[in-house]
Specification:
The protein is an alpha+beta fold and 97 residues long. Helix content is 19%, strand content 41%. It is globular and about 40 Å long.
């Protein structure tokens, strides 16, 4: 699963009930796509991330798995995810153990 930068301050309501849409238009997202040499397509699964201190002040990353789709209203690709799945990488690793 590809990791793509996203600014979690830039979110939209999703057409999918219970989901949030992340428009994949940030310069950091475009940089990651170019570095990975990939093109977005409907149904692609990605891991969105944003640098962020964890609850203890340690620099970490917010992360969330998401599914890509083209949104005709926004005229761009978005990644839909469940808000409650958004967590710090350290929390995600602890939950897997």
């Amino acid at each position: 699963m590809h990791r793509l930068f996203h600014d979690f301050n830039n979110l939209k309501p999703s057409k999918r009930e219970g989901f949030v849409s992340a428009p994949l238009v940030c310069s950091g997202t475009k940089d990651d796509l170019e570095a990975l040499g990939i093109t977005l397509n409907d149904g692609m699964e990605v891991l969105l991330y944003e640098p962020d201190p964890d609850p203890h002040g340690n620099l970490g990353f917010l992360e969330v798995p998401a599914r890509v789709r083209y949104d005709a209203d926004f005229k761009c690709f978005v990644a839909d995810f469940v808000w409650n799945d958004l967590m710090h990488r350290s929390e995600a690793k602890a939950n897997k153990q």
